[in-house]
Design a protein that fits this description.
Blueprint: H1 4-22, H2 35-57, H3 64-71, H4 75-81, H5 85-108, H6 115-132, H7 134-146, H8 148-151, H9 153-170, H10 181-204, H11 211-229
Helix pairs in contact: 2-3, 2-4, 2-5, 2-7, 5-6, 5-7, 5-9, 6-7, 6-11, 7-10, 9-10, 10-11
């Protein structure tokens, strides 16, 4: 005769096994993807839709319904991934900033020992990214200016990443003690601000001016800074 303890232990084992089997990680696969993979795919679609619509229509005009329609998903799945459009905005801004930074780092990697070539590669990649990704560029360079309240510290952090990257590119070329970190940061902020402002005007005029003219103009400004630093 089976004791009550054995029956209770078997009952607990069965319940535990059922919970494990029903968990997202062990849920049935559809199209070769488990529940977690499908959830990530839905979130990626919503993020891409949010970036596109915020970049084109503006954050204030972008609703959850519009994002879901663009992604081909229901509102149920929106709330599965995001609490609100504000949360999606934060992730969208951060994702585009990272994408642009990574693309600049990759483009400049072969020229870290050649200041002139490094500047050219960095500027060319920046303008090329903006031209090839107008929705993303509008989001981080135009729309972000009007929604800094929602973006909070991320806006300043994103700006700081570009300033830090420029300082890091410059330091290896300095001779002797060179300029102080404070002065380098001030100069880098001025350069990043000029570049953003130029991109904003370029976007607003529907990219009419050729990229090579923009690159050449910014190269002259960078050359002036390099001369002052003795590079």
């Amino acid at each position: 005769m089976v004791s009550n303890k054995v029956l209770r232990r078997n009952e607990i084992t069965n319940v535990t096994k059922q919970k494990v089997d029903e968990s997202p990680r062990n849920a049935r696969k559809y199209g070769g993807k488990d529940a977690l993979a499908r959830q990530k795919e839905r979130k990626d679609k919503l993020l891409a839709a949010g970036i596109k619509l915020i970049g084109r229509e503006g954050f204030a005009a972008t609703s959850i319904d519009a994002i879901c329609a663009e992604a081909g998903l229901t509102k149920r799945y929106f709330y599965e991934s995001y609490e609100s459009t504000n949360v999606l905005l934060l992730e969208a801004y951060q994702a585009v900033i990272v994408e642009l930074l990574v693309s600049i780092q990759q483009a400049t990697q072969p020229y870290l020992n050649d200041a002139k070539a490094l500047v050219h590669a960095g500027l060319l990649q920046t303008f090329t990214f903006v031209a090839n990704n107008p929705d993303k560029a509008r989001l981080i360079m135009i729309e972000a200016m009007s929604v800094r309240g929602q973006l909070g510290h991320l806006y300043g952090k994103g700006y700081g990443h570009f300033v830090g990257l420029l300082v890091a590119f410059t330091k290896p070329f300095l001779k002797g003690e060179g300029a102080s970190d404070v002065m380098l940061t001030v100069m880098a902020k001025a350069m990043v601000g000029s570049l953003i402002h130029l991109c904003q005007g370029w976007i607003a005029t529907d990219f009419k001016q050729p990229i090579n003219e923009l690159v050449q103009g910014m190269e002259i400004i960078f050359a002036g800074m390099a001369k002052e630093l003795g590079i």
